[in-house]
Amino acid sequence: MSLKQTFPFIIGICLLGTGALFGQEVYLEVRKEAAPKIRINVSLEEREVTQVLASDLERSGYFELTCREEAEIILKGECGRIKEEVVAEVGLYSIDQTSPFYLLKGRDRDERRLAHRLANQVVERLTGKKGISYSKIVATYQTGKGKEIVLLDYDGANERLITTDESLSLFPRFSPDNASLLYTSYLRYWPEVILHHLNTGRREIVASYPGLNSASSFSPDGRQVLLTLSKDGNPEIYLLTLANKRLERLSRNRAIDTSPIFLPDGKSIIFVSDRSGSPQIYQLQLKDNSLKRMTFEGSYNTSPAISPSGDHLAYTSRVGRQMEIFLREIESGNSFCLTSGPGNKEDPSFAPDGRHLVFTKTLDYSSNLYMLDIFSREIYPITTKGGYRSPDWSK
Amino acid sequence: MRVFGFWFLVLGLWSLVGCAARPVKEKAVLKELAEGRAIPEEEVLALRGEDIPLVEKELKERKKALTEEEKRIFKNIYFDFDKSDIKPESRPVLEKIAAYLLKNPALDLLIEGHCDERGTEEYNLALGERRALSARRYLIGLGVASKRLQTISYGEERPLDPGHDETAWAKNRRAEFKPLQ
């Protein structure tokens, strides 16, 4: 064979080789988008802004905080109060440059909010991704007299009680516009589903059928809610249209059916059923009622949560005697465990960036909220004093 | 036409029998219970085959305390982990409760379903409800009218034993019976 004849052959092999290589890179990117992190040094004159900003950048998963000598990028500038406001003028500097390649300006009513604002700008400028520094988490908090709903910043700051019912309030969920919450409340003795408008504090009862009314979540357009009701003699899944109160039964099975959530496209729902003899996760297509079992490994798979893009399903699975958080790539069908170490990890909910999860970890009978980076598996605490459960991350 | 008439008659008779069946059955069950005879398993299972809708009711909280007799009758029943079927040892308890309810027709019953602390909260709330509904279905099988039986689930929220071991968990996986009036 002459060189002329073999040349196209070689090119072909090279192309094949790079194709395979790219394929693998794409795959690795899904798993380990985190690496490598940008080494950043944050030093502003104001202590609280520096602390919150640095913490936000670290929690975003894209940055590693370092000393000035080891940094690739330095974030520095001026910050101070002007009358009622905190004002900052901050620059991002490459290590060998004296003038900033990006200048950020911001003003806000307090240090924390200003720091969050700056952090989102830095994340967006350097990664192209949206920051989550402004996002909130809603959860239940155990008091001496029951469970109340609390609202927290995503890093645990600014905790506020949303209810003071001295009753049981469970499973709070944000509406798609974050303007209201759905939760199950025992305020009037029986478990009922309440819609709570956060701006006005107005509350309305959405579901008050005989028996159990619980486990509610919104449709992507916010007009419908999924419920678990036992009014027909068994816990089943129903779809309620809020405007006209029309109720449609979606499950019909002698087993427990609960924890329904919509996929982001609104075309199917995911829920938990023990129809196989143990609780497992199923997907139901609303168009043709076709049902697909999603989890097969393990004897206890519950509390499903779907990422905003619909790419990932997170859920709680029992491994041995302990609960762990699992992640499933919807397209490939691969599932893997995200958590390890002592304590039960339960009830995951996705952050708006689709990269982070909030979950409950119960250790030594004390339950706290943690955030987890699904790519790097790094975990940061959100609460520390115990008594927190059932978190939901704002949209 | 004549064929139609015949079938109407059959249908009519059948529906009459159907309507009459319940009170007759309730009496028969009561008699059997009074005589201390066990209820045949098939009879109970047959009624467990269907879900019986719950009826909307106001809570009539009972002001007076339970009598000594009631304390002996309204005992808790217990369940296996992640299960909601009635265990054989719970049957005598449910039979006594059914007999008492049949003797006291003014009395309604609230059945509370509970779980142990293991498992996720939302699933446990549904499991607790299913335990209460299992007990309810069993009582209906023993002749108690379904409209007299309310259920409420507390999931893992109201443990009887605050401990964190198998002894405590076994006590917490339960149904409690609260008379209403």
For the structure shown, list the relevant keywords.
heterodimer, A: 395 residues, alpha+beta, five-stranded mixed sheet, four-stranded antiparallel sheet, 3 helices, 29 strands, B: 181 residues, four-stranded mixed sheet, 6 helices, globular
Q: What would your notes on this structure say?
A:
The complex is a heterodimer of chains A (395) and B (181). Chain A has helices at residues 3-31, 47-60, 111-127, and strands at 38-44, 63-65, 73-82, 85-94, 102-108, 136-143, 146-153, 160-161, 169-174, 180-185, 192-197, 203-207, 213-218, 224-229, 236-241, 247-249, 257-262, 268-273, 280-285, 291-293, 301-306, 312-319, 322-329, 335-337, 344-350, 356-363, 366-373, 379-381, 388-393. By secondary structure, chain A is an alpha+beta fold. In chain A, a hairpin with a 6-residue loop joins strand 14 (224-229) and strand 15 (236-241). In chain A, helix 2 (47-60) packs parallel to helix 3 (111-127). The relative contact order of chain A is 0.09. A 4-stranded mixed beta sheet of chain B has the order 1-4-2-3. Chain B contains 6 helices and 4 strands. Chain B is an alpha+beta fold and 181 residues long. The radius of gyration of chain B is 19 Å and the shape is globular. In chain B, helix 1 (2-34) packs across helix 4, helix 2 (41-48) crosses helix 5 (121-141) and helix 4 crosses helix 5. The interface between A and B is large, with 40 and 31 residues.
Give me a quick take on this structure.
The complex is a heterodimer of chains A (395) and B (181). Chain A has helices spanning 3-31, 47-60, 111-127, and strands spanning 38-44, 63-65, 73-82, 85-94, 102-108, 136-143, 146-153, 160-161, 169-174, 180-185, 192-197, 203-207, 213-218, 224-229, 236-241, 247-249, 257-262, 268-273, 280-285, 291-293, 301-306, 312-319, 322-329, 335-337, 344-350, 356-363, 366-373, 379-381, 388-393. Chain A is an alpha+beta fold and 395 residues long.
